[in-house]
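Sharing a chain and its predicted structure for anyone who wants a worked example. Both blocks are below, sequence first, tokens second.
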Amino acid sequence: MEVLESSAWVIYHFYMDSLANMTVNQQSHPHFITQIDVSSESTNSAPANRQSALSDISICMRSMLAAQDRQNELLEELVGQISQMHRQRMHELATWKQANPDLSYFCRLAADKLGKVQTDMLSTITTEVEDGFENFLDSEYALGEFVDRFGPRFAHLNGLLQVLAQLGNAPDFVTHQQTNIRES
């Protein structure tokens, strides 16, 4: 606080001394006052500077628009490639299902049963997390033990379920059931 008071005192006395030393006819100013040139030359160059600035902005906007157009073209090309790959994959999957209708049906059944196993495993995991949450925060060993116990099995189960669900998706499952009902 004392430093602030002494700084204010110094600034005040410097300002007062500067004012006292100035005379009415004197052109000198204290160093903290600046001069601004307001001659007629600066007003004539203002429209030119404004036109130059507008031209620069226009050029920048055009280049941004061109870049955005190029980006849109690339996105359209990417979407086309992805959709082509997806159609090819769906065609291959449909071909496999037509060649193996029984296996597709059993894949669907297996996916349904493993889905129940996954649900049970998720229930166990969530209970374990709820019970051991404080322990996991305090002990990296406990958290590592939990991840080691459930992580790999859960990841592998998810992978198996994904493959089985793709190979035995619902439309083929319904078709296979309808075929079996007609045969019965």
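Comments welcome. The CA atoms of residues 50 and 100 lie 74 Å apart.
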